[in-house]
């Protein structure tokens, strides 16, 4: 009796569980379909299954990537480089003889001579572009050149033109008398700058301010920032005078509305 009960229990429960654990045989049609597929598709399928599978090493944690916080970039305001430019060089030279201005006016082109208005002769050339004021005594004032070299070359050309008329002309005592330079800077408060001891400002008479930079060199400054330097006899003196006055001008800079 006991053996029959054990056999019945074994056939009903244990035999059924062991049948469930048996491997399921694959379908022959499915094996045939997989055998016909190329190897690339089979490896792709395996890769996708492995990539989509759960990662046991991740420990269910999400990696947080810390991005750098961008710092605000402020615009850098750079002042344009301000360099005075030579606009006019005034020089003098002696020709060493007395001149007949009326005769020169009749024989030379580009000459203007009006003795009733002004007792000198005005002569102009194009290269280098300059103008000469010639006096009867033989003194010549050359203006309009942009550099010392151009002024000397222009003075020699004027002397050569007069020499071709048969006059005993010599090129003597060439000298730079004045240089005019200008530049444009930032707006300037002339009222504040007028408190400087070297400045003179009369807005009722003239809109510019006169600044005695160095002995012999004067700057005329306007509220717009335009500066005219007068009195220098060398280019180096122009730049030295501007460098000397520039710190004072920065202290008197006028702030403009945005």
Automatic annotation (TrEMBL):
GO terms for cellular component: nucleus. Keywords: DNA-binding, Nucleus, Transcription, Transcription regulation. One of its GO terms (molecular function) is DNA binding. It holds the Pfam family TBP. SUPFAM superfamilies: TATA-box binding protein-like. GO terms for biological process: DNA-templated transcription initiation. It is found in: Nucleus. Belongs to the TBP family. This is TATA box-binding protein-like protein 2. The lineage of its organism: Eukaryota, Metazoa, Chordata, Craniata, Vertebrata.
